[in-house]
Design goal:
Blueprint (H helix, E strand, L loop, with lengths): L2 E5 L2 E5 L8 H8 L18 E8 L2 E8 L12 E3 L13 H8 L9 H13 L6 H8 L9 H13 L5 H4 L1 H10 L9 E2 L4 H10 L4 E3 L5 H6 L8 E3 L9 E3 L3 E5 L4 H8 L4 H8 L4 H4 L4 H6 L7 H8 L2 E6 L2 E6 H4 E3 L2 E2 L5 E9 L5 E8 L10 E10 L2 E10 L6 E2 L1 H7 L6 H7 L3 H4 L10 H19 L18
Parallel strand pairs: 1-5, 6-8, 7-8
Antiparallel strand pairs: 1-2, 3-4, 3-5, 9-10, 10-15, 11-12, 11-15, 13-14, 16-17, 17-18, 18-19
Helix pairs in contact: 2-5, 3-5, 10-11, 16-17
The structure holds flavin-adenine dinucleotide (FAD) and FE2/S2 (inorganic) cluster (2 copies).
Length: 480
């Protein structure tokens, strides 16, 4: 298995020690680049943030990622930039580093390389200064000493007075270099297919292989559970899994579409789902985490599935040349058990577009507003005509062993007036639909209480009652 990439501007050809060697280990142990730090080793703190540059047509785009849970295979054909690359040819600091100095954005400095790299990704992508967007971009970088005021000030300084950096000067050279290294070399342990048919063929031949899309779940199996995984099939280069196709009635979202790429496509159609996506993990997580991985992991607390179930999404599964479509709610059978055969993978998700008369609301409840897993997530899709509930779909995450529809609650509301009295009568049905558990995120009693409150919140926001609880998408901070 040979991985070819650019480390800064230097071409590299490396043989990882295993298919699951992390980029962070590779940097610190093999490349002796110790500027990138390890904090949590699970994608939470951002100390290990590096930036990946990749071709997007004939342009370059940059993504901040957590090197602690990315495997070296994910570097294939890309440019990897660490804090060591930011020094300018004349020895001066990069503008984002200089701004951190001027704004007093660093004290102990453990978090600083990661923060600088998150800012650098924004700088390279030409982001304009916007306080809310920058808070989102930095939500995956924990800093315990300085606090975020000076860091945001640094971001403002750097983005407002942009000047060409060494990466601008060498842009054409970088594009040419990336075009020339996009070769690949499969071995018995590691496969990196480029198309869905190729993936189908390889997976059919190696049904015991672990699929790795963004690796934001799989990475933790390695760093936290010390699992040895082989063979691995990397999905990040499967081009046709990364497409979003819009038809008059649907969005068809390839399983390999990252949440960062899905967010702008979802925002005009389903703003509440977009707001959930904005709070899913951090920028570093959303830059690699895929919708397919969020579904296929079968987690009871994944944020995408309850929204998608309430919207009436359909899953497309593929094994070899055979495709089958499945309502998403039927995919989740029991904890850790999904309706997926050996050698079968998630190819796409069909999501209906808005229809007249229907309203959609989704609410994520977590202890921390940003970068936190949901204690519960309620998604409500309701069709009201003349004040009566004609149809509805309610789904919750965090209330059962799988993401699940609230069929009894739905039945209690269908055909009833959309009124406070109907809501009050339906709320007790939620504990018939779900038997929530107590864990470190919330008690069963809290979950049951909040689930009912969210149903009422949905009613308040979609009826004529005064709307005082609304959180909208637009980069605005809300109260969750
Ligand atoms: C710090 C951190 C914060 C997080 N925050 C959130 C959060 O707020 N909300 C949330 O929902 N999740 C969160 N997650 C979990 C994770 O990021 C998401 O579930 C993500 O969408 C997984 O996608 P991935 O591409 O990284 O999956 P991977 O890790 O690559 O894969 C996950 C699972 O799906 C399988 N798989 C992947 N693609 C396919 C496919 N096409 N077909 C079949 N199987 C497939 C893999 O084999 C594996 O079993 C967080 C994770 C971390 C580390
Ligand atoms: S070390 Fe904490 S996010 Fe990677
Ligand atoms: S400066 Fe100390 S953690 Fe950020």
């Amino acid at each position: 298995m040979t991985i070819r990439y650019l480390l800064g501007h230097e071409p590299k050809s490396v043989e990882p020690s295993s298919p699951t060697e992390t980029v962070l280990d590779h940097l610190r142990l093999a490349c002796h680049r110790t500027g990138t730090k390890e904090g949590c080793a699970e994608g939470d703190c951002g100390a290990c943030t590096v930036v990946l540059g990749e071709l997007d047509g004939d342009q370059l785009r940059y993504r901040a990622v957590n090197s602690c849970i990315q495997f070296v295979g994910s570097l294939d054909g890309k440019q990897l930039m660490t804090v060591e690359d930011l020094r300018q040819p004349d020895g001066s600091l990069h503008p984002v580093q200089q701004a951190m100095v001027e704004a007093h954005g660093s004290q102990c400095g453990f978090c600083t390389p990661g923060i600088v790299m998150s800012l650098f990704a924004q700088y390279r992508n030409g982001a304009d200064w916007n306080a809310a967007a920058m808070a989102d971009a930095l939500a995956g970088n924990l800093c315990r000493c300085t606090g975020y005021g000076p860091v945001l000030k640094a971001a403002q300084l750097a983005l407002k007075e942009r000047r060409a950096d060494a990466f601008d000067v060498r842009k054409e050279e970088t594009i040419a270099a990336l075009q020339s290294i996009a070769a690949r070399d499969d071995t018995l342990n590691y496969f990196a297919p480029r198309s869905a048919p190729e993936l189908a063929e390889i997976y059919a031949a190696h049904p015991q292989a672990t699929l790795v899309a963004g690796g934001t779940d799989v990475g933790l199996w390695v760093t936290k559970q010390h699992r040895q995984l082989a063979p691995v099939i990397a999905l990040s280069n499967v081009a046709d899994l990364q497409e979003i196709v819009e038809t008059p009635t649907h969005l068809t979202i390839g399983a390999g579409v990252t949440y960062a790429d899905l967010l702008p496509a979802m925002a005009p159609l389903w703003p509440d789902f977009a707001e959930v996506i904005r709070r899913l993990g951090s920028a570093q997580i959303r830059n690699v985490a895929t919708i397919g991985g969020n579904i296929a992991n079968g987690s009871p607390i994944g944020d995408g599935p309850p929204c998608l179930i309430a919207l009436g999404a359909t899953l497309v599964l593929r094994a070899g040349k055979t495709h089958r479509a499945l309502p998403l709610e039927d995919f989740f059978i029991a904890y850790g058990k999904q309706d997926r055969q050996a050698g079968e993978f998630v190819e796409a998700v069909h999501v209906p577009k808005p229809q007249a008369g229907w309203s959609f609301r989704a609410y994520k409840i977590s202890k921390r507003f940003d970068q936190d897993i949901s204690a519960l997530l309620g998604a409500f899709h309701v069709k009201i005509e003349n004040g009566v509930v004609v149809d509805l779909r309610i789904a919750f995450g965090g209330m059962a062993a799988v993401p699940k529809r609230a069929l009894r609650t739905e039945a209690a509301l269908r055909g009833k007036p959309w009124s406070e009295a109907s809501i009050a009568a339906a709320i007790p049905m939620l504990v018939e639909d779900y038997q929530p558990i107590t864990d470190m995120r919330a008690s069963a009693a809290y979950r049951a209480k909040v689930a009912g409150n969210l149903l009422r919140k949905c009613y308040l926001e979609t009826s004529d009652a005064e709307d005082t609880t609304r959180v909208t998408f637009a980069g605005r901070r809300g109260h969750g």
